[in-house]
Design goal:
This protein is an alpha+beta fold. 31% of the residues lie in helices and 26% in strands. A hairpin with a 3-residue loop joins strand 13 and strand 14. The longest helix has 21 residues. The structure holds adenosine monophosphate and glycine.
């Protein structure tokens, strides 16, 4: 009897998870809650929202799910893993206590300071006037972060005092992010190049995925407002083997030891958002899940079966087996609705996905799509993750953009410079 696996979430990351899990000979059936139309080829879509904790528990218990894999952070921070574990079910994803690494910036910064892990110097405030006074004495740019989850919008890198104070008031007085703004972190602005470093861990052992890099801003050349991520590639040449070794020794190992010492061991997928300057990695943030869109290019490179790794994380006994990785680079170009990350319209028919995949070496992962009268239409800000593999990064980028050219809908937008930083670092 094969395994029954439940994937929680509905984005591009979750489509990539379903696509990869479907290749496992260990798996008999995949469910996705709530999923998206791209997943329907491999998974049964379950109409339960990813934040409906009782609904997910009832589904998992009722269908005797062998393994639940949680894509987004919100259900983890809200305690989905704990609820499933209480029912004796296996889940790949940390407890609510350990998910504070993403759910509370104050928790994380205090932990980093306590265990001497490199990160920007910071102060914590729970009073807006005190925070304002301090910010006005801080050198610019100054970074202000709402403590709690804010759907990626809770951070300002303020270039002026006006901007800094305005953001503080939005967060702490107007409470635009609700209780997430009860406290703030004010920290130094780090310079360098960002990269994503994502590992599997059972709380002690660590098995890293290859390196990757996201593109957070909407515009070419990293301009304009932040988004959920406009594209990613792997590997990221900024993370040299030496940087990787340092990240492991100075960040991941002491962090996991710290989490154990605090009585909140971390089991699951740990994503370090790192800032790297002159070969020194520092922590910008942690996420307690796979990156979106980083998962898309990463899974396209992963040759080993993903399921044993997910199972071992869930069981708390990761073996040293490591994983087999395709040496060829991969690139994911996110195609978004025109107007995103601001207001945008939905419901435009999408054409050309099969044509794009016919190029070979291309997988199109769905994010914000829906079926209307049997036709695929846009249904979100980030709509598709067009992901390509090729012999070198330049060819992977070219293949990805050739695939993008074959896909279209009214107002479709993508950045035209995904992967450029790798080329600038001399990767071919
Ligand atoms: P976070 O959610 O903490 O990763 O912040 C979101 C984004 O803000 C990061 O990906 C960085 O681009 C930027 N950021 C956060 N903290 C800093 C910092 N201390 N210095 C410079 N940029 C930062
Ligand atoms: N790609 C950024 C994130 O997953 O948070």
């Amino acid at each position: 009897m094969g395994l029954k696996v439940l994937v929680v979430g509905s984005g591009g990351r979750e489509h990539a998870l379903v696509w990869k899990i479907a290749q496992s000979p260990l798996v008999e059936r995949i469910y996705a809650a709530p999923g998206n139309p791209g997943m329907a080829k491999h998974a049964a879509l379950v109409p339960v929202a990813s934040d409906d904790l009782p609904g997910l528990r009832d589904f998992a218990v009722g269908n005797r799910i062998d393994l639940t894999v949680v894509g987004p952070e919100a259900p983890l921070v809200a305690g989905l893993s704990d609820r499933l574990a209480q029912e004796g079910l296996l889940v790949c994803g940390p407890s609510a206590a350990a998910a504070q690494l993403e759910g509370s910036k104050v928790f994380t910064k205090n932990l980093l300071a306590k265990y001497g892990i490199p990160t920007a110097d910071f102060r914590v405030f729970d009073d807006c006037d005190d925070a304002e006074q301090y910010v006005l004495t801080h050198r610019l740019p100054v970074v202000i972060k709402a403590d709690g989850l804010a759907a990626g919008k809770g951070v300002a890198v303020a270039a002026t005092y006006e901007e800094a104070v305005a953001f503080l008031r939005e967060v702490m007085e107007k409470r635009v992010f609700g209780a997430a703004g009860e406290k703030v972190v004010v920290e130094d602005c780090l310079t360098g190049e960002e990269a994503s470093y994502i590992v599997f861990t059972d709380g002690e052992k660590i098995v890293p995925l290859p390196t990757s890099q996201d593109h957070k801003r909407i515009g070419d050349g990293d301009t304009g407002p932040n988004t959920g991520g406009m594209g990613a590639y792997s590997p990221a040449p900024v993370v040299t083997p030496e940087v990787e070794r340092k990240a492991m020794k100075t960040i991941f190992e002491p962090l996991l030891a710290g989490m154990r010492a605090e009585g909140t061991p971390f089991r699951g997928i740990l994503y370090g958002g790192l800032m790297i300057e002159r070969g020194e990695p520092k922590v910008l943030e942690f996420n307690v899940r796979f990156g979106d869109p980083e998962a898309q290019p990463l899974f396209l490179r992963l040759k080993s079966d993903l399921v044993p790794l997910l199972l071992q994380c869930a069981q708390g006994k990761l073996t040293d087996a490591g994983m087999e990785i395709d040496p060829r680079p991969t690139v994911c170009i996110v195609m978004a609705s025109g107007g995103y990350p601001g207001a945008y319209r939905k419901g435009f028919p999408i054409a050309g996905i099969e044509d794009a995949e016919r190029l070979g070496g291309v997988q199109v992962f769905h994010a914000g799509t829906a079926l209307r009268d049997g036709k695929l239409v846009t249904n979100g800000g980030r709509v598709l993750g067009v992901t390509a593999v090729d012999k070198d990064i330049r060819s992977a980028i070219e293949r990805g953009y050739r695939a993008v050219e074959r896909i279209g809908w009214e107002g479709a937008y993508c950045r035209s410079d995904i992967g450029k930083k790798a080329l600038e670092r001399g990767a071919v």
